[in-house]
Specification:
alpha+beta; Rossmann fold; D-amino Acid Aminotransferase, Chain A, domain 1; 3 domains; nine-stranded antiparallel β-sheet; 20 strands
């Protein structure tokens, strides 16, 4: 039985733990607060004061003695992972992959400069004055992001001079302890996709059917599969995804994000783990969910193929934006489940801060050729039946 140390215990980690447990794994879940979603289904839990405390993390690794370390969040001491890997612990996908992809400078330079992938024009800034100069170089509109963040945290679009200082302040609220930001030219894209890419320890790299998504302030709100995408553009995305994941190595699932603009596919970002937009696969849209694929890849179990089974869509359930709910409960779940081809995942977060993602609604068709635009609208309509309220 493999012992897995999961660093970060959110909703994506929870589904991963469920999949790993079904394969016979043993999981120790770590986070900065008790009763985090993945802890609720793990074998053991550890609460750290900060995931950026490298010495505390060293102590946990020494105590747990894991066979495998699976990072689920960005804000950890990624440089420590190299030492763990050298000691014989399997780091997922690899220490290099985690270190590169959890820092936008490293992954963007790898993609654009080393591999020659098409990206938005970009530069970096480490102070407000340098940010103003960088915006002048890239031009407006442009996008400002912290080097270490996820799910749109700290991300802003700069359209006027007056937006620059606000964007700098917002970026300082991103995750991690880096104060540097990346400044990207704004891409006038037709749509965005996530291409879930599975690297196996043995066997070929596999690609899931592309997933489209809608974001609000850089944060995922809806996703649907398959994306309406020309086969030639899919081939372009696959070629680019394989190049970058081959360079990063290891075994596991990568969420590779692209902008699609007319006849061009433009590399955006990459996550070395299941992707939030990939929660749509929990609706059995493909042969295995992204979490089952990650579990198999991490445990070095074979994955013969991944195929689209049916079209589907997901829509998030959010906490109210005007208050914090200390003991969240849910209304409308019964009403939502009365709809056909529908399921709900409540994440089990013990506290609902304003606008926090608390669950996801899954809705699917009976065939893979169904109208995904209609499906995503239906998913949002049904998700809006569910409310997060104060519990007893």
């Amino acid at each position: 039985m493999k012992k897995i140390l999961l660093l970060g215990s959110g909703e994506l980690g929870k589904e991963f733990v469920i999949s790993v447990k079904r394969m016979g794994g043993y999981v120790v879940a770590v986070d900065t607060y008790d009763n985090a979603p993945a802890m609720q289904v793990a074998d053991e839990r550890v609460v750290l004061g900060s995931m950026l405390d490298g010495e505390a993390l060293d102590k946990v690794v020494a105590q747990v003695k894991p066979d495998i370390i699976v990072p689920e969040i960005e804000a950890i001491r990624t440089e420590r992972l190299y030492d763990y890997e050298k000691s014989g612990i399997q780091v997922v996908p690899t220490a290099k992959a985690v270190n590169y992809t959890m820092n936008r400078r490293a992954i963007r330079d790898l993609a654009a400069k080393q591999l020659g992938l098409l990206t938005a024009p970009y530069t970096y800034a480490s102070s407000l004055e340098k940010l103003k100069a960088a915006v002048g170089k890239i031009g407006m509109p442009c996008v400002i992001k912290p080097l270490m963040s996820s799910s749109g945290k700290g991300q802003s679009v700069v359209k006027t001079e007056g937006d620059i200082e606000k964007a700098w302040d917002a970026a300082k609220g991103g995750r991690g302890d880096s104060t540097e930001v990346i400044v990207e030219g704004f891409i006038d894209f037709d749509y965005e996709i996530t291409l879930l890419t599975v690297k196996q320890a043995e066997g070929e790299t596999l690609f899931c059917p592309p997933i489209s998504h809608r974001q609000v302030k850089g944060d995922y709100h809806e996703s649907w599969q398959p994306a309406k995408m020309d086969s030639k553009l899919i081939d372009q995305a696959r070629e680019m995804a394989k190049k970058v994941t081959d360079e990063l190595g290891g075994a596991g699932i990568f969420g590779v994000e692209f902008f699609v603009s007319k006849d061009k596919v433009i590399f955006s970002e990459l996550s070395p783990r299941p992707h939030d937009t990939g929660m749509v696969t929990l609706g059995h849209t493909q042969t295995y969910s992204e979490f089952e694929l990650h579990a198999r890849a991490v445990l070095h179990l074979p994955i013969p193929k991944v195929e689209l089974l049916r079209a589907g869509a997901s829509a998030v359930v959010l906490a109210p934006t005007d208050r914090t709910i200390e003991k969240p409960d849910y209304t409308g779940v019964c009403e939502a489940l009365k709809e056909g081809n529908t399921d709900v995942r409540i994440f089990g977060k013990p506290r609902a801060t304003p606008g926090r993602r608390m669950g996801v609604l899954l809705h699917w068709a009976d065939s893979k050729d169904a109208d995904v635009d209609k499906l995503k609208d239906e998913a949002r309509r049904i998700a809006d039946k569910i409310s997060v309220v104060e519990g007893k």
